[in-house]
Specification:
The structure holds 2 protein chains of 2 kinds. Chain A is mainly β. Chain A has no helices and 11 strands. Classes of the chains: A mainly beta, B mainly beta.
Amino acid sequence: QKEVEQDPGPLSVPEGAIVSLNCTYSNSAFQYFMWYRQYSRKGPELLMYTYSSGNKEDGRFTAQVDKSSKYISLFIRDSQPSDSATYLCAMSRDSSASKIIFGSGTRLSIRP
Amino acid sequence: DTGVSQDPRHKITKRGQNVTFRCDPISEHNRLYWYRQTLGQGPEFLTYFQNEAQLEKSRLLSDRFSAERPKGSFSTLEIQRTEQGDSAMYLCASGEGRSPLHFGNGTRLTVT
């Protein structure tokens, strides 16, 4: 079993829809949670960075962490075609961690 | 802040040849990471530097792989006697203190 599980998709939704992306994990020591967006042939770009449980909002993006369920989510409101990309969840045990563990990524397509 | 820079962007080599990649992190970032990403997968941790010290190496990093960060600034990743299974995107990331990682756009290696 992988430490971090993420549905690979692909996920296709119409423009303007609310998108929900999720990851589960098995290591209860993870405390820092990240979402990265990756366009084709580009490196991952940091979207959200949260510590422990709770919600964090940044514009159209909301990250949720439920440590009791070992479950994290990223919501995208008013989705745009430019949001079409692969979304990677990532997590680590500490803020200056020796390594960050990534999910396999979810491919998202926003239909105009 | 010019971002993490990686060179070359794409490298095609024949099996058995040696290759070297370079990463220039964001200036003053003391942490530097190398990851490998294959198609449809998330990045996998290879190795990590704190300044010039290599603090952790993944079991994925066989004896054919070596990484250096001689002056705590740029880093190189060398693969000796390349194999077809080494074909992947090699990503470099840097961070400062407790800040999250910022990735470069990677070097895509194709071994023929």
